[in-house]
Amino acid sequence: MNNTNKQEDTTKDSVRRNSQATIHLVEGPVGAGKSTYAAQLAVQYSAPRFNLDEWMVTLFSADRPETGFMPWYAERKDRCIEQIWNLSSDLIESEQSAVLELGLIQREDRRDLYKRVDDMEISLVVYVLDVPKEVRQQRVRQRNTQRSGTFRMHVSDKIFELANSMWQAPDEVECRERNIQYVNY
Known about the structure:
Blueprint: H1 3-18, E1 22-27, H2 34-44, E2 49-51, H3 52-60, H4 69-93, E3 98-101, H5 107-120, E4 123-129, H6 133-146, H7 157-166, H8 172-177, E5 180-183
Parallel strand pairs: 1-3, 1-4, 2-3, 4-5
């Protein structure tokens, strides 16, 4: 590596460490109000918002299979998250914050994102929306009926229960190691 490239790398590293740009990650169980809250954060921080559900519906809903949905969904979710991450890290390099709503409902998925954040030395705030199950299920049913606001796709009671059962709230270690803000929304 020549001196010019070393200098460019040093400058990039300095920008990452000194930047006020932040990843605002919004997580929580199905129906918690994540999309609404993420939209408010995007306005508050003048930051673009990346919503996984919007990407999935736009790119793949026409191809959704009747059976074998979970493997089909998981593979496409991973591809969308990869592209959202690429765009978000470009924004951070430009000293611009980003609001992410990625459906990282399991701790292991969040750990994967945390590693990326740590590797780039990016500032991260995680907002966990904490709402009782009964309230969330009512919201989802209402959203299914009204098909307005944050509606992206129909979420049946069966899918609600499946997604709800998969949600893993941050544990003590995650809360200790990360800037997690619980939001009752």
